[in-house]
Specification:
By secondary structure, the protein is mainly β. The chain is built from one helix and eight strands, in the order αββββββββ. The chain has a single domain, classed as Porin, CATH 2.40.160.20.
Length: 167
């Protein structure tokens, strides 16, 4: 686990550009997961200003509302995702498809009169999506497959708001 954390920090250091013209978008998203139902979360997108390779770093947090079947049982589930995606060039300037991979941290806990337990797992994401660049608000849709960590299929959509240059 420590090696993975060191690798993620090193990758972030290498991938984060020093130029001040990186594009920064913030937004919200609604997610549906095949195991944990509906989720609500936030999203940060940083366009990395590499001239030849159009990359973005995407960070998300989703809090899911699992359907609880047993009375008196409280199930909590959330995910933190960090991904790097390649913006796929297309002939339609308003559409930006993307594909990439990243790290998923999933946390689940169950509280009841009989048991209290929690678990946090780290996994890998494979994702793809599309953004519709129509003005100051950019709607998006995304499919994410989680290998280990959350171990589920997630469908998300939401809107991004451009807040200007990154750092």
């Amino acid at each position: 686990m420590r090696r993975l954390l060191v690798a993620v920090c090193l990758a972030a250091f290498v991938l984060v550009p020093s130029a001040a013209y990186a594009q920064l978008d913030l937004g919200g998203q609604l997610s549906w997961a095949d195991d944990f139902d509906l989720g609500l979360g936030g999203r940060v997108v940083l366009g990395l200003p590499f001239e030849q390779v159009p990359l973005e770093a995407i960070g998300t947090f989703d809090y899911f509302f699992p359907d609880e079947d047993a009375p008196g049982v409280d199930v909590t589930y959330w995910e933190l995702n960090t991904n790097v995606v390649y913006r796929i060039p297309v002939q339609v300037p308003m559409l930006t498809p993307y594909a990439g991979a990243g790290i998923n941290i999933a946390h689940a806990s169950v509280d009841s009169d009989l048991i209290d337990m929690s678990d946090t797992e780290v996994g890998i994401n494979l994702l793809g999506g599309i953004k519709y660049n129509a003005g100051p608000v950019t709607p998006f849709g995304e499919l994410r497959f989680e290998l280990d960590g959350g171990e589920q299929f997630v469908l998300g959509f939401g809107a991004l708001f451009n807040v200007g240059p990154g750092f």
